[in-house]
Amino acid sequence: MSDLIRRYGVTITALMCLLVAFWLVMLVIVPNITLFEQSFRPYLPVVDVGGPKDVYSLGNYAKVFDGSIERSFFGIPYMIPVHVMTFGLTIWYSIVVTVACFALAYPLAFFMAKIANPKSLPTLLLLLFIPLWVSEVLRAFAWWIILAFKGPLNALLLAIGAIEAPVRWIVDYDGVVIGLTYTYVLFMLFPIYNAIASLDTNQIEAADDLGAPWWKIHLRIVLPHAKPGIASGCVMVFMLSAGSLLVPSILGSTTSQWFTQTIDQWFKDALDWNTASAYAFILLLLCTIFVSIALKVFKVKLSDIAK
Amino acid sequence: MSAKIDLENVSCDFGSFRAVDNANVSIEPGEFFSFLGPSGCGKTTILRMISGFIEPTEGAIKIGGKDMRGQRPNQRPTALIFQNLALFPLMPIWENISFGLEVRGVDKATRRKKAEELLELVDLKGAADKMVSQLSGGQKQRVAIARALAVEPSVMLLDEPLSALDLKLRQHMRAELRAIQKRTGVTFIYITHDQGEALAMSDRVGVMSQGRIQQIANPRDIYNAPINGFVAGFVGENNIFEGKSGAIAAGMAGFDTAYGTLRARINDDAKGKALRLYVRPEHTLLSAAKAEENSIPVTVSEVSFEGAFISVLCHSDDGKLIVAELRNDGSATVPDIGTKLHASFAAARAALLPDANVRG
Ligand SMILES: Nc1ncnc2c1ncn2[C@@H]1O[C@H](COP(=O)(O)OP(=O)(O)OP(=O)(O)O)[C@@H](O)[C@H]1O
Ligand SMILES: [Mg+2]
Fold first, then answer.
1. Terminal-residue alpha carbon distance, chain A
2. What are the phi and psi torsion angles at B302 (to 5°)?
3. What is the ipTM of this complex?
4. Strand duo B66-67 + B58-63: pairing
5. Which of A58, B172, B175, B242 lies 20 to 30 Å from A47 when distance is taken between CA atoms?
6. Residue B14 CA: which ligand 1 atom is closest?
7. Cα separation values, B159 from A209, B13, B42, B219, B321, Å
8. pTM
9. What value does the mean pLDDT take over residues B4-21?
10. For the domain that residue A241 is a member of, what is the CATH number?
């Protein structure tokens, strides 16, 4: 602090602190606290707001357990509240997206960090970045077109004879998983790339020289070294996927429902901000808990990720 | 467990740049062989070709008589110790050492036992469960050696392994390395740019410059009978004289210089090349009277005390620097600055040598 004052003077330091404080308080804390407070209050007609019925309760949170439907698991039927199921599927497919991103990003990151000619790296990065300059909406729609039943992907696969009849891609959660994977794969790529780039190539060669086959080198040398990068990539992709609204709305099918879409419906269709807020906090809380458990299981410390 | 290594007309190009040019060496089983040369002369490149990380552009590398072309590093009976050691920081020491066994599918108990044995061999008992970051430089060095020995290689390749250590430790590790080599009988190929290290440890030394092997000989011959000016200059100090050589008789020749005709040894194959006369400072004598041969009048301009010897810097009448080294054992009187003396040397101690063997 005194260092800042010495360097920039009192006025600018004060200004900087004020701006940061404003951003934190007005744009982060206050809105969240407002929603948090609202989430415990019932949704009432305007005249009743602040009246005797306006009391704090967990009623909004309990609404996720309303309205059960029947499902079956390997032939065993069971009842499950529809919103709980949506939540479960959101988490499950977010995990699928995370795994898919990792499967795509790890080989590419390794290639970029250790195999590609450093001279061609800027070109490679540019190619990866260009799609990011296009708005997310357009990209999601582009995938919608690509994956369409009579779209270019089916046409291509038919032309090269990979498939016999056109495939319906946007069924169930498939379109959502493809779209989310495409949207967030770079969030996986760069942390892993950074981690692998910091690995001394001599270590890979030393393992090779000692007789290790390629998969052993990855398992024992590269993956352990890149673990913090992988963890931060996974956390980011998982959180972003679970919290994504746009891609599930555009690339979802009739049978797919993302938990954010449920929240969105509470906000916009039901105009019940209180329940919507409660749902949003459920999502935030449970995802955070889930990620913390995952980090524990894989023995990654938060401080490693922040590096 | 050791093997013969043959490099036959081995060259290596990086694009249009030739890093190693036509290297021919035959290294005997159980030999301690050093490649010595300045930075960038292609030492690491030779080592990486032997270990299989790069293929020679031309020529053949044979280990135990078998051509190694197309063999991956993990298929060769070599173990490389990297310039920066490249230990695995996320594994404890014993796993580092037994990594080569792990990839060969050896069970854990056997691996552990072998690691303990090797730790004992390199004098590091009890370090098995430490992490790499907990070790000192010299200890890491030993772990790297143990890790390489664990796979029982026929050939150990060491890339300047001592360069990161301080002087005392370096000298200690020299002896240690040599002892480990004797104990295991493995062929060692050692790379260094430190001539003291190469001369002290090796059975034979290959001196390199700009991708070419200049001379291969035992350390004594490298120092006493260098084949050209580069080798003479790289392994020690010299007083160098320019001039023109005369007729050769019985391995000696006259050499016309600004200080009269000096006499020195000459090799037959040096005939016709541009030559210079090289004589080492410790073979340069100072006397009040003119010597019988190879005598040059000089004035003492500086005396510098080096510990084991005293270095006397003299200038000839035309300003050429001539250095003489006197042993610090009381046998020689140290001249005062400004004294007029005669510098001389025995013809048998001086040599007429061509410049380095480089691409034209
Ligand atoms: N991968 C490469 N691509 C292009 N040039 C290279 C490559 N590796 C080495 N060189 C060049 O080859 C020459 C020899 O390199 P090398 O690493 O063998 O030198 P060295 O003798 O080991 O030097 P040092 O003592 O500094 O380690 C150098 O001029 C270097 O620039
Ligand atoms: Mg080198």
1. 23
2. -160, 145
3. 0.78
4. antiparallel
5. A58
6. 4
7. 14, 20, 12, 19, 37
8. 0.81
9. 93
10. 1.10.3720.10
pLDDT given for residue B46 in this prediction: 94
Among B172, B165, B177, CA closest to B135: B165
In a shared domain, residues B151 and B267: no
pLDDT of residue B137: 85
The type of residue at A273 is W
Among A295, A181, A297, smallest CA distance to A235 is for: A295
- Ligand at minimal distance from the CA of B46 is 1
Q: φ, ψ for residue A50 (rounded to 5)?
A: 85, -5
Position B32 confidence tier, pLDDT thresholds 50, 70, 90: very high
Are B181 and B216 contained in the same domain? yes
Question: At a CB cut-off of 8 Å and minimum separation 6, what does B252 contact?
Answer: B263, B264, B265, B266, B347
Considering the domain architecture, whether residues B50 and B155 belong to the same structural domain is answered as yes
B104 — contact with chain A (CB < 8 Å)? yes
Please name which of B219, B236, B131 lies closest in space to residue B178, comparing C-alpha atoms.
B219
Q: Has residue B359 been placed in a domain?
A: no
Q: Distances from the Cα of B17 to the Cαs of A117, A149, B35, in angstroms? A: 18, 55, 20
Q: Which domain holds residue A175?
A: 66-306
A209 interface with B at CB cutoff 8 Å:
yes
Cβ count within 10 A of residue B90: 15
Q: Is B43 in the pocket of ligand 1 (CB under 6 A)?
A: yes
Among B209, B230, B251, the domain boundary falls at B230
Q: How confident is the model at residue B1 (pLDDT cuts 50, 70, 90)?
A: low
Q: Give the bridge partners for B315, in sequence order.
A: B299, B321
Decide if B99 and A208 are in contact by the 8 Å CB cutoff: no
Closest alpha carbon to B80 in B182, B191, B209: B191
Distance CA(A131)–CA(A139), nearest Å, equals 8
- Name the nearest CA neighbour of B13 among B62, B58, B68: B58
In the listed set B178, B213, B230, which residue is the last one of a domain according to the structure?
Answer: B230
B10, B35, B41, best to mutate for ligand 1 pocket (most atoms within 8 Å of CB): B41
Query: B238: Cβ below 6 Å to ligand 1?
Result: no
Phi and psi (nearest 5°) for A47?
-65, -30
Q: Is the CB of B202 under 6 A from ligand 1?
A: no
* Nearest CA distance, B293 vs chain A (angstrom): 56
Ligand 1, residues B45, B49, B50, B195: which to mutate, most atoms within 8 A of Cβ? B45
- Residues in chain A within 8 Å Cβ distance of B159: none
Name the residue of chain A whose CA is nearest to B157's CA. Answer: A209
- Which residues form the domain of B89? 5-230
Q: Does B143 touch chain A (CB under 8 A)?
A: no
Please tell me if the CB atom of residue B52 comes closer than 6 angstroms to any atom of ligand 1.
no
Looking at per-residue pLDDT, the higher value among A5 and A97 belongs to A97
